[in-house]
Amino acid sequence: MPIVSMRPQAGASAALPRVVLGTLPTPLDEAPRLAAALGSPPIWVKREDLSGLALGGNKTRQLEALMAAALAAGADTVIATAAAQSNFCRTTAAAAAKLGLGAVLLLRGHDGLPVTGNLLLDRLLGAEIEFIDTADPYDPAVPLRLEQIAGRLRAAGRRPHLIHVVGSSGAIGAAAYLPAAEELVSQSRAHGVAPAALYVTAGSGLTVAGLALGLKHLGSPMRVVGICAQKPAAFMRPLIVERANEAAALLGISTRVEATDIALDDRQIGPGYGTATPASVEAIELAARTEGLLLDPVYTGKCMAGLIADIRAGRWSGGGPVVFLHSGGTPGLFAYGADRLEAARSVAAA
C-alpha cells in the first residue's frame, strides 16, 4: 500500500479529497524592480513555481486531487498524456513515484526526440513512455490510444487509472485550484493590497477555470486575465467556463462562472504552441534580470509578455496592483536552449 498523507479538507474545496504532494501555501511576493522597469503599478507574483514537487509548478495542486482519485479507485498505475515537454506529465511521474505507483505517459511527438528538459525528468522518474504522432491535444486519436494502453495494462494484471485533463479529469483539475484563490485573497489582505487583476497562462485552461470560480465564489473583484499559450480565445473561452462550472457542481457550490468573468488574450501565441516569440524572450530576460525569476518560453514567458503588453498599452495605469501567477515550467528553458531563444529574438530584429 502507498504511504499517503491526506491534506485537511477546508473551505470551498472541502468536498475534494487531496493527497499531500506539494509545499503549500506558495508565497505571494512583490516584484518592485520589475514594476519600476515597466513604470507600472505594483506587480506581485504568486509563486506556484515553488510548490515543491519535482521543480514545482501549478500542476502540483491539480495532481493532489487527481492522484487522490486514482488511489480511491484502487489504481496501481496512472496513465497521462500531453506534449513531449509537458510539465503536467513530468509532475505526474513525480507524484506517482512519491506514492509508489507506476506511470505511463503518452506523449505527443515521436521517439528520437532529444532527451532534455521534462523528457529527461520523465525518464529519471521511472515513467514508461510512449509517443503518438499528433501535435493536437484534442485529436480524437488520443483518447482512443489511451484506452488501448489501459486495456493492455488490465490484460497484464495491472490496475490503471486514466488522467486526461482535456477530457474526463478536467473538473477535478479545475476544482483543485480553488484553494489557490483562497490563498491569494488571504495573502493579498495580509499584505494590505487589493489586486485589480491576476494574469495566468491558459494552456489546458484548468488553472484559469479554478481561479475564476474561486475568486467569484469569494466575492473578490480581482479580474482573471488568461494569456493563451496554445489555442485561440474563441476555442478556450467556452471550454474554461464549462470546466469551471463542472468543478462547481463537483464541489457542491452554487457559484457559476460566465464568459464575461474571464478575460482571454491570444495575441501572444505567435507562430504556435511551444514556439518562443520576440516578446516572450524579452519577458524572460526582463523577469530574470530584474527579479531573478526564471520563466519558460512556452507558458510563463508568453504570460509575462501579455502582462507587459497590457502595461505598456496603459491598461493598468492609475489602477491597483496586478498579480502574475508563476506556474513553473523551468525545465522548458533547458529543453529550448540558447540557440532557439536567440533565433526567436532575431525575428524582431529582421
Structure description:
It is a single chain. The chain has twelve helices and ten strands. The chain is an alpha/beta fold and about 350 residues long. It folds into two domains: about 10-60 and about 170-350, Rossmann fold; about 60-165, Rossmann fold (3-Layer(aba) Sandwich). The strands form two sheets. It has a six-stranded mixed beta sheet, sandwiched between helices. A four-stranded parallel beta sheet has the order 5-4-3-6, sandwiched between helices. Helix 1 (about 30-40) packs across helix 10 and helix 2 (about 60-70) crosses helix 3 (about 85-100). The N and C termini lie far apart (about 60 Å). About 50% of the residues are buried.
| Overall residue-averaged pLDDT value | 95
User: Distance between termini?
Assistant: 59 Å
**Rg over CA atoms:** 19 Å
The portion of residues forming beta strands comes to 5-15%
Overall strand count: 10
Q: Tell me the structural class.
A: alpha/beta
Gross CATH architecture of the largest domain: 3-Layer(aba) Sandwich
Produce a short descriptive summary.
It contains 12 helices and 10 strands. By secondary structure, it is an alpha/beta fold.
Features:
Rossmann fold, 350 residues, four-stranded parallel sheet, 44% helix, alpha/beta, six-stranded mixed sheet, 2 domains, 12 helices
